Amino acid sequence: MKLILLLLLLCSTWEVSFAMSIHIQFMAVKLRSNSTPFAMETLPGRDSMNCATLCALRPTCFGFSWLQGLCRLFDWLAFSSTDGWQASESCDVYTRIVDSQPQTQLKLESCSQSSTHGSNVCGRAIDGNRNQDYYGDSCAHTENNPFEWWEGQLAAPSFVSYVTIYNRQDCCTNWLKIFSLQVDGVECNRVNLTVPFSVANFSCNAFGRQVRVTNLRT
């Protein structure tokens, strides 16, 4: 179905501080743990500081564990999976932590959508114009096909806490009631509303770079 969006992303971002000019921080989330998330990469490491540096230099790395000279790097999906941790000798598990700023609005450097109705290109959803009237030339608009989607790309992988969506208000508010939010192709929230909305925050809590909204209304 048609997807009409005036979208603003509000997210938490990361900061790291120990390798060159990179600024990211890590914290221990499990000390002397007997399990650890499945590793996406295993590298030699002198100590936990060296492992943190290796993780900071890899955009998809969310955290690491260090054991017997090896850095085991893992991504957000491995960490957040309730049944995806593996048995391990005693080790400490570290993850990136959010900056001291309570919230940061992340900027999208590019966007795309499944189709375009008229001149209503994807960039209108993130141009800063929050006019919710379709005829104000402020909304992105797809054609009327099943599973239409809109996607924005962040400048760097980040932790997306939630997505704020400004819905069209001159008409057709019920067109956006059942949809999926995904980060890097993985669903973080499936929304099924009984009444239309004007402006709303939709939780996500996922780590990645591509943020997609897919209309599931049939």
Write a brief caption for the model.
InterPro entries: BG_Antigen-Binding_Lectin, Galactose-bd-like_sf. The protein is mostly beta strands.
Topology:
Layout: E1 4-12, E2 26-37, E3 41-44, H1 48-56, E4 63-67, E5 70-74, H2 76-80, E6 85-96, E7 108-113, E8 140-141, E9 149-166, E10 178-183, E11 186-192, E12 199-215
Antiparallel strand pairs: 1-8, 1-9, 2-6, 3-5, 4-5, 4-6, 7-9, 9-12, 10-11, 10-12
InterPro entries: BG_Antigen-Binding_Lectin, Galactose-bd-like_sf
Pfam family, one: F5_F8_type_C_2
Protein name: F5/8 type C domain-containing protein
| CATH architecture group name of the largest domain | Sandwich
Going by CATH, what is the homologous superfamily of the largest domain? Answer: Galactose-binding domain-like
| Number of DSSP-assigned strands | 12
Beta content: over 45%
Helical content (DSSP H or I, runs of 4+): under 10%
The major β-sheet equals: 7 strands, antiparallel
Protein name: F5/8 type C domain-containing protein
InterPro entries: BG_Antigen-Binding_Lectin, Galactose-bd-like_sf
Organism: Macrostomum lignano
Keywords: Signal
Description:
- It comes from Macrostomum lignano.
- Keywords: Signal.
- Residues 1-19 form the signal peptide.
- The chain has 218 residues and is mainly beta.
- The chain is 6% helix and 47% strand.
- The chain has helices spanning 48-56, 76-80, and strands spanning 4-12, 26-37, 41-44, 63-67, 70-74, 85-96, 108-113, 140-141, 149-166, 178-183, 186-192, 199-215.
- The strands form two sheets. Strands 1, 7, 8, 9, 10, 11 and 12 form a seven-stranded antiparallel β-sheet that branches. It has a five-stranded antiparallel β-sheet with strand order 2-6-4-5-3.
- Strand 4 (63-67) and strand 5 form a beta hairpin.
- The longest helix has 9 residues, at 48-56.
- The radius of gyration is 20 Å and the shape is elongated.
- The N and C termini lie close together (6 Å).
- Residues 7-22 have low confidence and may be disordered.
